[in-house]
Amino acid sequence: MADSEVILAPQEAGLQHHFDDSAQQLESSTLGMWVFLVTEVMFFGGMFGAYTVYRNMYPEAFASTSQFMNVTIGAINTSVLIFSSFTMVLAVRSAQLGQKKALIAFLVLTLILGCVFLSLKYVEYHEKWVDHHIPGPGFQYADSRYTHQAQILFYLYFAMTGMHAIHMIVGAGLLTTLIVMAARNRFSSRWYTPVEMIGLYWHFVDIVWIFLFPLLYLIGHTK
Amino acid sequence: MSTTLPFVPAETRTNYLNADYGWKSWLFATDHKRIALLYLFSITAFFFVGGAFAVAMRINLLTPDGIFTHDTYNKLFTMHGIIMVFFFLVPSIPATLGNFLVPMMIGARDLAFPRINLLSWYIYIAGGILTLTAVFQGGVDTGWTFYAPFSSSYSNTHVILAAMGIFVSGFSSILTGLNFIVTIHTMRAPGMTWNRLPLFIWGHYATSLIQVLGTPVIAITMVLLGLERVLHAGIFDPTVGGDPILFQHLFWFYSHPAVYIMILPGMAVISEIVTCFSRKAIFGYNFVAYSSIAIAVFSFIVWGHHLFVSGQSMYASMVFSFFSFLVAIPSAVKVFNWTATMYKGSVSYDTPMLYAFGFMGLFTMGGLTGLFLATMAIDVHVTDTYFVIAHFHYVMVGGMVMAYMGGIHFWFPKISGRLYPEGWAKFAALLVFAGFNLTFFPQFILGYQGMPRRYAHYPPEFQVLNVMSTAGASILALGYLIPMIYLAWAWRYGPKSPQNPWNAKGLEWEQSPTPPPTFNFEHQPVVTEPAYNYSGEEQEVTLG
Fold it and tell me: Distance between CA A54 and CA B252 in Å, rounded?
């Protein structure tokens, strides 16, 4: 009984037993990924909500923290991520065309850019540590009027960029998996759904950073 | 059961239960029906853990001076709330009956993502272990609401562990919701149009929307709370510029919609039971279907009614109060339409229908007292009293648990392939109804008279009503234990069930053997009639 059902399904690349055909499976995967990204929007949305509330409560204190943010690294990281989105798109395109070597090359390039981002992020976190800008008992702030309020900004800074960095690390792991799968000839121009899905994820994580960079680094630079 | 049963040949057919044996075939199962059973057993375990805390509380409240210390009592109601809300009510119907029935009702072989479905169970168990660890380490005393700054700065119990448990188990809820949404969108059988979907599916679709949109917010709230406990940066601490009300906003942004995660699947079950035991199509299919979606939408704009006395702006409160009243409309649509479905129907009084009657009466009381609480002036009087406790237990226990029990009985033959003893089942259903009302109706009066919630001791004049409540709780506990016993017995020794013991409509009864095979159907089901076509009238066939 169970066996006959399995054989009923046509032997298409990557098709699982409970789908009728590849089109249905692709539609499910795509919808599932977008729904997942919606949950991610809500997840980060909670922190953006908290940021909005406190920025409205303490605009001066928040603006004053900008001078302690490393705008140079932030800007470099922004362009690194935008460029990595571009290489990710090229990877998806290569998968579509069934070009294995180009696929692997672009995936590796995306992974390298992701690692560059994380390394620069580490440098920034280290600076914050040296400057006593880690929220908690050791927190110090140059402008004593704003110590507590600035600490809230730095709390949000670490929560938001930290969550973003965790998503980057997960993304790097996923890219590594894709590279291994590509090297083992798992993808073809007929089936490359994981590349496309992880591409969506990667773009989402990039977009989060596009919002984080101005909100956390640039708010004091209005003059 | 009471009706005469057709003869069932003792054939040994391969079904999902005997397709494979051994612990591996269960712990690595990707069959949605087996995963539903994994959930069923784990959820039942958590139900009894949470129930044990309730029993301890009711024993403490027998006398004005109680038997537990204040600290212990704080932990009892906290652990009762956390376990019942996050580990029983939220997953109860979706993860068990929903998991089992959503693919079958739409004519699919499985959920869209079977491995993610299994993953969600493991995540649930991981979250449960974290929370139970917090219990065994000594518990948490913040209340299930974790209000800051007490939870973030002052409580010296295992808040982080419990928060982690909730954070983790939330992802199980998200994955279940995600799976349902995708499955309902992409895997319906030929002819299963949106307007032919059983209302069970509409209810679960609405539930899934809330799970997907709301749960990530409680996750990040728990992260912020945990970080704040570690860092003491003051984000929720008003003494250093933090805003504790922000925590309440974030918390209720999920936790109010979450109560609709807890009730919508219950309503979904009731729609199936009422039509089957009235032998009639649902009255106003479209209204009932879209009222589920309406409830899901409204659920996200009413959270502020939990903050009427928290210093929220009066004008915000007025808006939230208005929207809270609006929720009554789709909820009432459902109750009216179930009632109208029974009108001139051929109503029979089997156990699932008894639970459905219980649901309709008790949910109506719970819903109407919700309107009292949505009224700002009355809410100020009864905030944080037993009136609130009684209100949400009428909805959660009188509503959701009734529907859960009704659903378990209704689909028990489908799930186990056996029939349960109808006499015992009716007796237990009546016990639950009587015990429930005796437990919680006195709490409305207590609350209106001013007895606050979450206090271990109370003035002596409240004792009579509290003794009534505890007596009711004992009956209620018995009412829950008896089904445990006879269902377990029937699973092994009950008479074999025919394919469709209730003569119910729906793909899961009409086109799938009982118990179902691993891939649910022996032939690709095709739908040619609207849902609940009990009148059997010829319907025009519009395929594709």
Answer: 19
Q: What CATH topology corresponds to B32-510?
A: Cytochrome C Oxidase; Chain A (1.20.210)
Contact of A152 with chain B, judged by CB distance below 8 Å, is answered with yes
- Residues of B in Cβ contact (< 8 Å) with A31: 181-182, 185-186
CB burial of residue B467 (10 Å; 0-12, 13-18, 19+): middle
pLDDT, mean of residues A12-24: 83
At B162, which amino acid appears? Answer: A
Percent over 70 (pLDDT), chain B: 96
Chain A residues with CB-CB distance to B240 below 8 A: 148, 151
pLDDT digits (tens, 9 = 90+) for A159-207: 999 999 999 999 999 999 999 999 999 999 999 999 999 999 999 999 9
Mind listing the pLDDT tens digit for each residue in A109-135? 999 999 999 999 999 999 999 999 999
Q: Which residues of A touch B192 (CB under 8 A)?
A: none
**Chain B hits for A163, Cβ within 8 Å:** 220, 223
The structure tokens listed for B365 are 């009381």
CA dihedral (B110, B113, B117, B120) in degrees, to 10, reads -170
A31 burial class (0-12, 13-18, 19+ CB within 10 angstroms)? Answer: middle
Contacts of B129 (CB under 8 A, 6+ apart): B165
φ/ψ region of B345 (left if φ > 0, alpha if ψ in -120 to 50, else beta) reads beta
User: Structure tokens of A199?
Assistant: 């591409």
Residue from B16, B110, B152, B178 whose CB has the most chain A CBs within 10 Å, to mutate: B178
Are B109 and A27 an interchain contact pair (Cβ–Cβ within 8 Å)? no
Q: How distant, in Å, are the alpha carbons of A120, A121, A135 from that of A127?
A: 11, 10, 13
The b/e string for B227-250 (b: 16+ C-beta within 10 A; e otherwise) is bbbebbbbbbbeebbbbbbbbbbb
Residues on chain B touching A16 (C-beta within 8 angstroms): 114
Q: Nearest-CA residue of chain A relative to B231?
A: A136
How close does chain A come to B512, measured CA to CA in Å?
Answer: 13
A18 and B186: CB-CB below 8 Å?
no
What is the distance in angstroms between the Cα of A16 and the nearest Cα belonging to chain B? 10
Q: Which of A32, A36, A136 sits opposite B233 (nearest CB)?
A: A136
Nearest chain B residue to A47 by CA: give it: B220
| Nearest-neighbour CA in chain A from B235: distance (Å) | 6
Residue ranges of the domains in chain A?
A: 34-217
Cβ of residue A47 closer than 8 Å to a chain B Cβ: yes
Find where tokens 């057993």 sit: B41
Of B186, B212, B217, the CB nearest to A38: B212
Q: Who wins on pLDDT, B1 or B203?
A: B203
Asked if A152 lies within 8 A of B235 by C-beta distance, the reply is: yes
To the nearest whole Å, the CA of A18 is away from the closest chain B CA by 5
pLDDT exceeds cutoff 80 at A13: no
Q: What is the mean pLDDT of chain B?
A: 93
Q: Is A59 on the interface with B (CB under 8 A)?
A: no
Ordered by start, the domain boundaries in chain B are: 32-510
Summarize pLDDT for B319-360 with one digit per residue, the tens: 999 999 999 999 999 999 999 999 999 999 999 999 999 999
Which residues lie below 8 Å from residue B54, measured CB to CB, with a gap of 6+?
Answer: B80, B84, B473
| pLDDT tens profile B88-123 | 999 999 999 999 999 999 999 999 999 999 999 999
Condensed to tens digits (0 to 9), the pLDDT of residues B2-33 reads 455 555 454 567 899 988 888 999 999 999 99
> What pTM does this model have?
0.94
* CATH level 2 (architecture), domain A34-217: Up-down Bundle (1.20)
Contacts of B187 (CB under 8 A, 6+ apart): A18, A19, A24, A28, B103, B106, B108, B111, B112
- Residues ≥6 apart with Cβ < 8 Å to A37: A200, A201, A204
